[in-house]
Amino acid sequence: MLNGTLVEETICNVTLPLTADQSIAALKTWSSLAFTTVIENISNVSGWLEWLANNLDIDAMNAVGLDGPAVLSQVSQDAEGASS
Fold first, then answer.
1. Which of 14, 83, 17, 74 shows the shortest CA–CA distance to 50?
2. Tens digit of pLDDT for each residue in 26-51?
């Protein structure tokens, strides 16, 4: 559920339009975060995150506009947390 106050504060704090580079970076960041959330939660099988961390292809993620190193880093961090 969206927090209306936070949305209003965020929107009202934008004083200038984003540049093309800023827009691309924001889309890449938020798409990567969404992708990470989906692939981490696609299965609840024990060992899923560890398997995923060992099999993600950084170049393939980069090729589709995601931040491959950031996705792998988050999945690896979450896999370590799940195993402890």
1. 83
2. 999 999 999 999 999 999 999 999 99
